[in-house]
User: Fold this.
Amino acid sequence: MGKSLSDIIGKENYDFVWRMFQVRHITEHNMGVVDADCVKKVPDLQPLEGRKYVLTQEEVEKFLNIILEAGNRILELLSNMETKP
Assistant:
């Protein structure tokens, strides 16, 4: 489609989604504890290194809304591609 996810949802939302995927990774593979690898990818989590990340309901809701928005925009882009000759 010639667009990145950042183009589709905006840089701020992309940065948030990136952060949440890193949180998902530490939740799944590190019992929620922020490690050095996570800090390399999300530097502002450095103060939490060695401690458990507490995921909030607001973060989950925001993440789901952004993903829904991204899906809808991608479907719209695909639909526009199909209608062009």
